[in-house]
Sequence to fold (206 residues):
Amino acid sequence: MQTSDARSSGRTSWKRLALVMVPTLATAGALVATMASGALATSFGVSATSFPVAGESFQIRSSRLVGDGFVQFGVVQRGRDGLYPEALTGIRSATLHHLCQSIVQNVPLLGPVTLRFTSTPAHADRLIANAHDLRGDAVFRNINIGQDAGTVQGVPGVQGTPGTFAEQASSVTVDDLRQTTRSISAATFRLPDLHLTVRRGDQSCF
Fold:
């Protein structure tokens, strides 16, 4: 999957990566401001795997995500109320332990209502998540940072705009994953021991 010789396996701190990775939290504020001014308008593309989004953010939490085949680059999602800059993360095969997903919406007469489901261990093939906030302790294997987004090959059919920033790795492990996103898709999503609840109040995953 690599477009250059594979690097030696090693441990990479998520916090350290945040200093050099364009899609990460450390640069999110600057990116949004720059895109608003139009300076990066051509650096982000609309993902070929994207779909119109409602614009509502929801939460994903997992005690451990283990994935084979990892790519990440910037995209823009279209929604009814505008455009949303996101970091697209693609994983060819992902297992999520103690998965929790939740969204809180205000319902007339009831106030906040939480839709939440849990499952473990959940498994997804060709998992695509467009996130604007992601936290966790991560280890990447054979990672390339700064690769051309049009050349990543970690997830079949998932590539970014040629000439723009991306990264890819042969595998990724993230402990205590906490992610806020507007959309997730997968070729298959298996949810053993699924438990879905709808409750009044804020019952978010984190």
